[in-house]
Protein backbone atom coordinates (compact mmCIF):
# COMPACT_ATOMS: atom_id res chain seq x y z
CA UNK A 1 0.00 0.00 0.00
CA UNK A 2 1.45 3.30 -1.13
CA UNK A 3 0.82 6.30 1.14
CA UNK A 4 1.41 10.02 1.21
CA UNK A 5 2.00 11.26 4.76
CA UNK A 6 2.77 14.47 6.57
CA UNK A 7 2.93 15.49 10.22
CA UNK A 8 3.00 13.49 13.44
CA UNK A 9 0.71 12.48 16.26
CA UNK A 10 -2.60 10.66 16.05
CA UNK A 11 -3.09 9.35 12.49
CA UNK A 12 -5.87 10.74 10.33
CA UNK A 13 -6.21 8.21 7.53
CA UNK A 14 -7.82 9.62 4.37
CA UNK A 15 -9.52 7.01 2.17
CA UNK A 16 -10.45 8.05 -1.37
CA UNK A 17 -13.07 6.63 -3.74
CA UNK A 18 -13.64 6.32 -7.50
CA UNK A 19 -11.99 7.66 -9.57
CA UNK A 20 -9.53 8.94 -7.03
CA UNK A 21 -6.08 8.62 -5.54
CA UNK A 22 -4.44 9.55 -2.28
CA UNK A 23 -3.72 12.74 -4.23
CA UNK A 24 -7.43 13.59 -3.98
CA UNK A 25 -6.75 14.74 -0.39
CA UNK A 26 -3.89 17.07 -1.39
CA UNK A 27 -5.65 20.11 0.09
CA UNK A 28 -6.40 18.38 3.40
CA UNK A 29 -3.03 16.74 4.09
CA UNK A 30 -1.05 19.91 4.96
CA UNK A 31 -3.92 21.41 6.96
CA UNK A 32 -4.28 18.27 9.09
CA UNK A 33 -0.52 18.06 9.60
CA UNK A 34 -0.34 21.73 10.63
CA UNK A 35 -3.01 20.98 13.24
CA UNK A 36 -0.70 18.50 14.95
CA UNK A 37 -1.98 15.25 13.48
CA UNK A 38 -0.40 12.62 11.24
CA UNK A 39 -2.15 12.89 7.85
CA UNK A 40 -1.95 9.63 5.91
CA UNK A 41 -3.49 9.32 2.43
CA UNK A 42 -3.15 5.87 0.88
CA UNK A 43 -3.72 4.91 -2.70
CA UNK A 44 -6.46 2.42 -1.91
CA UNK A 45 -6.31 -1.18 -3.13
CA UNK A 46 -6.60 -1.15 -6.92
CA UNK A 47 -5.27 2.38 -7.42
CA UNK A 48 -2.06 4.27 -8.04
CA UNK A 49 1.07 2.66 -6.64
CA UNK A 50 -0.74 0.23 -4.34
CA UNK A 51 -1.40 -3.39 -5.29
CA UNK A 52 -4.03 -3.77 -8.00
CA UNK A 53 -5.45 -7.31 -8.10
CA UNK A 54 -7.53 -7.98 -11.21
CA UNK A 55 -9.95 -10.38 -9.46
CA UNK A 56 -12.98 -8.60 -7.96
CA UNK A 57 -13.02 -11.16 -5.12
CA UNK A 58 -9.89 -9.43 -3.78
CA UNK A 59 -11.95 -6.33 -2.98
CA UNK A 60 -14.44 -7.82 -0.53
CA UNK A 61 -14.90 -6.30 2.91
CA UNK A 62 -12.80 -8.85 4.78
CA UNK A 63 -9.87 -7.94 2.57
CA UNK A 64 -10.31 -4.17 2.54
CA UNK A 65 -10.71 -4.05 6.33
CA UNK A 66 -7.54 -6.14 6.60
CA UNK A 67 -5.77 -3.57 4.42
CA UNK A 68 -6.60 -0.86 6.93
CA UNK A 69 -5.64 -2.99 9.94
CA UNK A 70 -2.33 -3.70 8.22
CA UNK A 71 -1.79 -0.01 7.62
CA UNK A 72 -2.48 0.79 11.27
CA UNK A 73 -0.02 -1.89 12.32
CA UNK A 74 2.62 -0.58 9.92
CA UNK A 75 2.15 2.91 11.37
CA UNK A 76 2.46 1.52 14.91
CA UNK A 77 -0.95 2.97 15.76
CA UNK A 78 -3.59 1.31 17.91
CA UNK A 79 -6.30 3.70 16.71
CA UNK A 80 -6.85 6.40 14.10
CA UNK A 81 -9.39 8.90 12.91
CA UNK A 82 -10.64 7.91 9.47
CA UNK A 83 -11.86 10.14 6.68
CA UNK A 84 -13.65 8.60 3.72
CA UNK A 85 -14.98 9.86 0.41
CA UNK A 86 -17.19 7.87 -2.00
CA UNK A 87 -16.15 4.18 -1.71
CA UNK A 88 -13.70 5.28 0.96
CA UNK A 89 -16.67 6.47 3.03
CA UNK A 90 -18.45 3.15 2.57
CA UNK A 91 -15.36 1.36 3.84
CA UNK A 92 -14.81 3.67 6.81
CA UNK A 93 -18.47 3.40 7.87
CA UNK A 94 -17.89 -0.34 8.00
CA UNK A 95 -14.65 0.03 9.96
CA UNK A 96 -16.67 1.50 12.83
CA UNK A 97 -18.68 -1.73 12.93
CA UNK A 98 -15.97 -4.26 12.08
CA UNK A 99 -13.04 -2.93 14.15
CA UNK A 100 -14.56 -0.26 16.45
CA UNK A 101 -11.69 -0.45 18.94
CA UNK A 102 -9.34 0.93 16.28
CA UNK A 103 -11.56 3.81 15.15
CA UNK A 104 -11.25 7.00 17.21
CA UNK A 105 -13.39 9.15 14.94
CA UNK A 106 -14.97 9.41 11.49
CA UNK A 107 -14.88 12.24 8.96
CA UNK A 108 -17.29 11.16 6.25
CA UNK A 109 -17.50 13.03 2.97
CA UNK A 110 -20.37 12.88 0.46
CA UNK A 111 -21.74 9.38 1.22
CA UNK A 112 -24.09 9.10 4.23
CA UNK A 113 -24.73 5.84 6.03
CA UNK A 114 -28.06 4.34 4.95
CA UNK A 115 -29.94 1.19 6.02
CA UNK A 116 -28.81 -2.18 4.74
CA UNK A 117 -30.35 -3.06 1.37
CA UNK A 118 -33.08 -5.73 1.63
CA UNK A 119 -31.73 -7.59 -1.43
CA UNK A 120 -28.31 -7.80 -3.05
CA UNK A 121 -26.99 -4.61 -4.67
CA UNK A 122 -26.73 -6.21 -8.11
CA UNK A 123 -30.45 -7.09 -7.97
CA UNK A 124 -31.30 -3.44 -7.31
CA UNK A 125 -28.88 -2.22 -9.99
CA UNK A 126 -30.45 -4.52 -12.59
CA UNK A 127 -33.94 -3.30 -11.76
CA UNK A 128 -32.92 0.37 -11.95
CA UNK A 129 -31.06 -0.16 -15.21
CA UNK A 130 -34.33 -1.17 -16.86
CA UNK A 131 -35.45 2.45 -16.48
CA UNK A 132 -32.28 4.35 -17.36
CA UNK A 133 -28.51 4.09 -17.65
CA UNK A 134 -26.92 3.26 -14.31
CA UNK A 135 -23.18 3.16 -13.96
CA UNK A 136 -23.35 0.73 -11.01
CA UNK A 137 -24.97 -1.80 -13.35
CA UNK A 138 -22.75 -1.04 -16.34
CA UNK A 139 -19.61 -1.56 -14.26
CA UNK A 140 -20.57 -5.09 -13.16
CA UNK A 141 -19.47 -6.96 -16.30
CA UNK A 142 -15.67 -7.45 -16.19
CA UNK A 143 -13.84 -6.10 -19.20
CA UNK A 144 -16.58 -3.94 -20.73
CA UNK A 145 -16.24 -0.67 -18.83
CA UNK A 146 -12.53 -1.38 -18.34
CA UNK A 147 -11.90 -1.23 -22.07
CA UNK A 148 -14.01 1.88 -22.61
CA UNK A 149 -12.42 3.86 -19.79
CA UNK A 150 -8.86 2.64 -20.38
CA UNK A 151 -9.08 3.70 -24.03
CA UNK A 152 -10.46 7.13 -23.15
CA UNK A 153 -8.89 7.97 -19.80
CA UNK A 154 -8.51 11.72 -20.32
CA UNK A 155 -11.98 12.24 -21.75
CA UNK A 156 -13.63 10.06 -19.09
CA UNK A 157 -11.89 11.79 -16.20
CA UNK A 158 -12.75 15.23 -17.53
CA UNK A 159 -16.40 14.31 -17.97
CA UNK A 160 -16.86 12.47 -14.67
CA UNK A 161 -15.21 15.21 -12.59
CA UNK A 162 -17.36 17.81 -14.35
CA UNK A 163 -20.63 15.87 -14.18
CA UNK A 164 -20.35 14.88 -10.53
CA UNK A 165 -19.49 18.40 -9.48
CA UNK A 166 -23.16 19.45 -9.91
CA UNK A 167 -26.38 17.48 -9.55
CA UNK A 168 -28.09 18.85 -12.65
CA UNK A 169 -25.16 17.88 -14.87
CA UNK A 170 -25.08 14.32 -13.62
CA UNK A 171 -28.84 13.79 -13.82
CA UNK A 172 -28.61 14.01 -17.61
CA UNK A 173 -27.05 10.52 -17.55
CA UNK A 174 -30.42 9.16 -16.44
CA UNK A 175 -32.09 10.47 -19.60
CA UNK A 176 -30.42 7.66 -21.58
CA UNK A 177 -31.31 3.95 -21.75
CA UNK A 178 -28.88 1.30 -20.59
CA UNK A 179 -29.12 -0.70 -23.79
CA UNK A 180 -26.40 0.16 -26.27
CA UNK A 181 -24.74 2.87 -24.18
CA UNK A 182 -21.39 3.11 -22.45
CA UNK A 183 -20.53 5.70 -19.82
CA UNK A 184 -19.02 8.15 -22.29
CA UNK A 185 -22.22 7.99 -24.34
CA UNK A 186 -24.25 9.41 -21.46
CA UNK A 187 -21.86 11.70 -19.56
CA UNK A 188 -22.27 15.35 -20.57
CA UNK A 189 -19.38 17.07 -22.39
CA UNK A 190 -17.03 19.01 -20.14
CA UNK A 191 -15.19 22.29 -20.76
CA UNK A 192 -11.46 22.39 -21.15
CA UNK A 193 -9.23 22.76 -18.12
CA UNK A 194 -8.39 24.67 -15.98
CA UNK A 195 -11.49 25.04 -13.82
CA UNK A 196 -11.71 27.18 -10.69
CA UNK A 197 -11.20 24.10 -8.51
CA UNK A 198 -9.01 21.87 -10.72
CA UNK A 199 -5.85 23.08 -12.47
CA UNK A 200 -4.47 21.60 -15.66
CA UNK A 201 -1.47 20.20 -13.77
CA UNK A 202 -3.70 18.55 -11.15
CA UNK A 203 -5.90 17.01 -13.82
CA UNK A 204 -2.86 15.81 -15.77
CA UNK A 205 -1.70 13.94 -12.66
CA UNK A 206 -4.92 11.91 -12.60
CA UNK A 207 -4.72 11.24 -16.33
CA UNK A 208 -1.13 10.04 -16.13
CA UNK A 209 -1.85 7.72 -13.21
CA UNK A 210 -4.95 6.12 -14.73
CA UNK A 211 -3.27 5.73 -18.12
CA UNK A 212 -0.52 3.87 -16.30
CA UNK A 213 -2.75 1.66 -14.16
CA UNK A 214 -6.04 1.41 -16.02
CA UNK A 215 -9.39 1.47 -14.24
CA UNK A 216 -9.93 -2.22 -13.41
CA UNK A 217 -8.86 -1.86 -9.78
CA UNK A 218 -11.32 0.94 -9.16
CA UNK A 219 -14.12 -0.85 -11.00
CA UNK A 220 -13.57 -3.93 -8.84
CA UNK A 221 -14.88 -2.00 -5.82
CA UNK A 222 -18.24 -1.89 -7.64
CA UNK A 223 -18.00 -5.58 -8.58
CA UNK A 224 -17.42 -6.56 -4.96
CA UNK A 225 -20.67 -4.94 -3.83
CA UNK A 226 -22.60 -8.22 -3.46
CA UNK A 227 -19.79 -9.84 -1.49
CA UNK A 228 -19.59 -6.82 0.82
CA UNK A 229 -23.38 -6.93 1.30
CA UNK A 230 -23.21 -10.60 2.34
CA UNK A 231 -20.29 -10.03 4.68
CA UNK A 232 -22.06 -7.12 6.35
CA UNK A 233 -25.07 -9.25 7.28
CA UNK A 234 -23.59 -9.99 10.69
CA UNK A 235 -23.39 -6.28 11.59
CA UNK A 236 -26.72 -5.38 9.96
CA UNK A 237 -27.78 -1.88 10.92
CA UNK A 238 -25.78 -1.70 14.15
CA UNK A 239 -25.64 1.85 15.47
CA UNK A 240 -22.37 3.78 15.21
CA UNK A 241 -21.47 5.66 18.38
CA UNK A 242 -18.05 6.77 17.14
CA UNK A 243 -17.70 10.58 17.09
CA UNK A 244 -18.55 11.53 13.50
CA UNK A 245 -18.45 14.54 11.20
CA UNK A 246 -20.34 14.45 7.90
CA UNK A 247 -19.47 16.87 5.09
CA UNK A 248 -21.47 17.18 1.87
CA UNK A 249 -21.96 19.61 -0.98
CA UNK A 250 -25.54 20.69 -1.50
CA UNK A 251 -25.12 20.03 -5.26
CA UNK A 252 -23.87 16.46 -4.80
CA UNK A 253 -25.81 14.07 -7.09
CA UNK A 254 -24.92 11.10 -4.90
CA UNK A 255 -27.44 12.21 -2.27
CA UNK A 256 -30.19 11.61 -4.81
CA UNK A 257 -28.99 8.04 -5.31
CA UNK A 258 -29.12 7.17 -1.60
CA UNK A 259 -32.86 6.91 -0.93
CA UNK A 260 -35.67 9.21 0.14
CA UNK A 261 -34.09 10.88 3.18
CA UNK A 262 -30.44 9.79 3.41
CA UNK A 263 -29.40 12.40 5.96
CA UNK A 264 -32.35 11.55 8.20
CA UNK A 265 -31.50 7.84 7.97
CA UNK A 266 -27.88 8.57 8.84
CA UNK A 267 -28.89 10.52 11.94
CA UNK A 268 -30.88 7.51 13.14
CA UNK A 269 -28.06 5.04 12.48
CA UNK A 270 -25.21 7.20 13.83
CA UNK A 271 -25.85 8.39 17.41
CA UNK A 272 -22.22 9.54 17.40
CA UNK A 273 -22.91 12.12 14.69
CA UNK A 274 -21.60 15.45 15.99
CA UNK A 275 -22.20 17.73 13.02
CA UNK A 276 -23.37 17.85 9.39
CA UNK A 277 -21.54 20.46 7.34
CA UNK A 278 -23.45 21.25 4.14
CA UNK A 279 -21.43 23.35 1.71
CA UNK A 280 -23.38 25.48 -0.77
CA UNK A 281 -22.55 25.15 -4.46
CA UNK A 282 -20.32 22.09 -4.10
CA UNK A 283 -20.88 18.73 -5.70
CA UNK A 284 -19.43 15.28 -5.12
CA UNK A 285 -15.75 16.27 -5.00
CA UNK A 286 -16.37 18.77 -2.23
CA UNK A 287 -12.90 18.35 -0.68
CA UNK A 288 -11.42 19.64 -3.95
CA UNK A 289 -14.15 22.12 -4.88
CA UNK A 290 -14.28 23.89 -1.50
CA UNK A 291 -11.10 22.89 0.35
CA UNK A 292 -11.05 25.82 2.76
CA UNK A 293 -14.60 25.10 3.96
CA UNK A 294 -13.91 21.38 4.23
CA UNK A 295 -10.63 21.93 6.07
CA UNK A 296 -12.27 24.27 8.55
CA UNK A 297 -14.95 21.68 9.35
CA UNK A 298 -12.32 18.95 9.72
CA UNK A 299 -10.10 21.00 12.01
CA UNK A 300 -13.02 22.01 14.22
CA UNK A 301 -13.95 18.35 14.55
CA UNK A 302 -10.36 17.26 15.29
CA UNK A 303 -10.16 19.84 18.06
CA UNK A 304 -13.12 18.16 19.76
CA UNK A 305 -12.03 14.49 19.57
From TrEMBL:
Keywords: Hydrolase. GO terms for molecular function: hydrolase activity. This is Alpha/beta hydrolase. InterPro entries: AB_hydrolase_1, AB_hydrolase_fold, Epox_hydrolase-like. Residues 11-291 form the AB hydrolase-1 domain. SUPFAM superfamilies: alpha/beta-Hydrolases (SSF53474). It comes from Gordonia hankookensis.
Amino acid sequence: MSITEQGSGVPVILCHGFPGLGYSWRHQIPAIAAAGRHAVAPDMRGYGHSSRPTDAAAYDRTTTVADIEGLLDALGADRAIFAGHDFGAQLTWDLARWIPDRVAGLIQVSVPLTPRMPVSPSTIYTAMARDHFLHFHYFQQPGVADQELDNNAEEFLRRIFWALSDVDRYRTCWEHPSEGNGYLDVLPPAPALPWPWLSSDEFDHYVAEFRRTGFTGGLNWYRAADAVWVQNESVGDAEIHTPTLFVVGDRDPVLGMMGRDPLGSMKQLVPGLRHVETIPGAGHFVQMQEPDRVNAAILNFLDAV
